[in-house]
Fold this sequence. Notes:
It is built from five helices and four strands, in the order βαβααβαβα.
Amino acid sequence: MSASVPHSVLFCCDHNAIRSPMAEGLMKHLYGRAAYVQSAGVKNDMEIDGFAVAVCQELGVELSRHRARSFEEMQSWGDDLSSFDLVVALSAAAQRQALELTRNFHLDVEYWPIMDPTGLAEGRDAILANYRTTRDQIHARMLGRFGPPPAAPTGN
């Protein structure tokens, strides 16, 4: 396990419906229980996006049970931002909100400018291609930041 995997990570984006759930799911899939991982949005006005579910399922990452939540809801449910070692903002609005909410805490906020795949294409194949690009951007940033995932145990 890479020493650069923090104990707890919060991924955030605008609506907690595409990018941050993808990041949460990928992190859990790649690094298992090495870190406590959650996600949140600036707003909670959408459900998990079906295209996000589909492209993550291609990698074996399950998102269909994800329930979107906002920063405000997260805190009211007991997940205090100060308890995270790292906050990763995947949109400019989420970065602004995270910096505002954590200004009195000593924790790192990183900005990963990840493409919002919505509204960029027409037709199922083109839309899925954009969602795959977003998923792959998150995956590449994650591997670059946290290192390769641990090797799967081999059965004898």
